[in-house]
Amino acid sequence: MPEILDQARSQVLENGVGLDEAGVLAVLNLPDEHLPAALQLAHDVRMRWCGPEVEVEGIVSLKTGGCPEDCHFCSQSGLFTSPVRSVWLDIPSLVEAAKQTAKTGATEFCIVAAVRGPDARLMKQMREGVAAIKAEVDIQVAASLGMLTQEQVDELVDMGVHRYNHNLETCKSYFPNVVTTHSWEERWETLRMVRESGMEVCCGGILGLGETVEQRAEFAAQLAELDPHEVPLNFLNPRPGTPLGDRPVVEGKDALRAIAAFRLAMPRTILRYAGGREITLGDLGTRDGLLGGINAVIVGNYLTTLGRPATDDLKLLDDLKMPVKALSATL
Amino acid sequence: MATSDVATAGAGAAWCDRCGEPAGVGEHVACRAARELEPPRYCAHCRRRMKVQVLPVGWSAVCVAHGEIRG
């Protein structure tokens, strides 16, 4: 057994104290033959500190495309030659999407907009949309609308948005290679305001943007310092027309190593499978991740790409005897 | 309204609905594979970029000239 796993067993599993950056790096550098042991330990940590339940979420794009920012992985930036066109979702369709999501047993519905930050039109759409969903659907509403002002944070709280997603995307040292139109610190400031408001903080990122293994460890440590309620873990799905459109996808074993390492850095967080898992891990890898530290999934489609059918994920959870977290447990 | 097949392989498709290049030029193997996890982006009839809305279950794509398809 590698020394780092022995250390993690006593520090993380028994005492609930996450690994630091050096510890995460050691896990990320484990040779393949020790990956099953790392995943098993991460799974034990998840079961000990989070329990067997899996939080299921659906997401929908309220405003697609035409974003003024230049996040190099994103097909929704208006600065790249991506085929994604700008489109708004109307309120009846938003409510229908929430209903479809609730039918899967999901307790979370995240409304996402491709913007730098919300303007008056988007906030109005949110106000009307959240009210309409709450009137008709039993589901928790989360939002992801970019960088916020304090007034917008307060308004989202008033609407009843219970969780706010704002990904740091990658570590501080690599961020300028991925985004040049705003800074890592600006994102951090929004997250600070969200936390102070009482909304739950959802913050993760994307692996495979060209960061080094050391920077992956740096990212896990920075997320652990933020201590978010939820960490969505994406794997780059290279999008045509974006600056990262020709990058290779993350190797499956590296993705699984990262899942284990992030769990060992953050034993109590909701660690969610987000975009890219289908092409990075496939069906078998998806199962391995759920037995390696993941305790939440986005089901159904993503914002501009498609996921596997929700029924497939729900069947997998059933096979693994992992109950879907009930709405009553999230309130 | 019609249910979309992968237009790169569909009969009568003039344009690949993923890359927007002529459907009859090349095999578009990568496009067909990618379309398993992507909605169409280009109208297979006229190559216009479509307005595409992805929903938790399904998607819709609208060409200003040829109308809406869903999947």
Automatic annotation (TrEMBL), chain A:
- Gene3D superfamilies annotated for this entry? Aldolase class I
Q: Which reaction does it catalyse?
A: (4R,5S)-dethiobiotin + (sulfur carrier)-SH + 2 reduced [2Fe-2S]-[ferredoxin] + 2 S-adenosyl-L-methionine = (sulfur carrier)-H + biotin + 2 5'-deoxyadenosine + 2 L-methionine + 2 oxidized [2Fe-2S]-[ferredoxin]
Per the UniProt entry, the Enzyme Commission number(s) are: 2.8.1.6
Q: Which InterPro entries match?
A: Aldolase_TIM (IPR013785), BATS_dom (IPR010722), Biotin_synth/BioAB (IPR002684), Biotin_synthase (IPR024177), Elp3/MiaA/NifB-like_rSAM (IPR006638), rSAM (IPR007197), rSAM_sf (IPR058240)
The UniProt keywords, alphabetically, are: 2Fe-2S, 4Fe-4S, Biotin biosynthesis, Iron, Iron-sulfur, Metal-binding, S-adenosyl-L-methionine, Transferase
Q: Which domain of life is it from?
A: Bacteria
The enzyme's first-digit EC class, named in words, is transferase
* Entry function: Catalyzes the conversion of dethiobiotin (DTB) to biotin by the insertion of a sulfur atom into dethiobiotin via a radical-based mechanism.
> In which pathway is this protein known to take part?
Cofactor biosynthesis; biotin biosynthesis; biotin from 7,8-diaminononanoate: step 2/2
Which PANTHER family does this one have?
Answer: BIOTIN SYNTHASE (PTHR22976), BIOTIN SYNTHASE, MITOCHONDRIAL (PTHR22976:SF2)
Record-linked SMART domains: BATS, Elp3
Residues annotated to bind [4Fe-4S] cluster: C67, C71, C74
By sequence similarity, the record places it as follows: Belongs to the radical SAM superfamily. Biotin synthase family.
- For [2Fe-2S] cluster, which residues are the binding ones? C110, C202, R272
Assembly and interaction partners: Homodimer.
Concerning SUPFAM superfamilies, the annotation shows: Radical SAM enzymes
Could you say which residues form the signal peptide?
none
Radical SAM core domain sequence ranges: 52-277
MF annotations from Gene Ontology? biotin synthase activity
Supply the name of the protein.
Biotin synthase
From TrEMBL, chain B:
Cofactors needed by this protein, per the record, are: iron-sulfur cluster
Question: What are the entry keywords?
Answer: Biotin biosynthesis, Iron, Metal-binding
Q: Which Pfam families does this one have?
A: BsaP
* Biotin synthase auxiliary protein C-terminal domain segment(s): 50-70
| Superkingdom assignment | Bacteria
What InterPro entries does UniProt report for this protein, alphabetically? BsaP_C
KW Iron (keyword) present: yes
This chain's function reads:
Required for the activity of the biotin synthase BioB.
Family under the similarity heading: Belongs to the BsaP family.
What is the protein's given name? Biotin synthase auxiliary protein
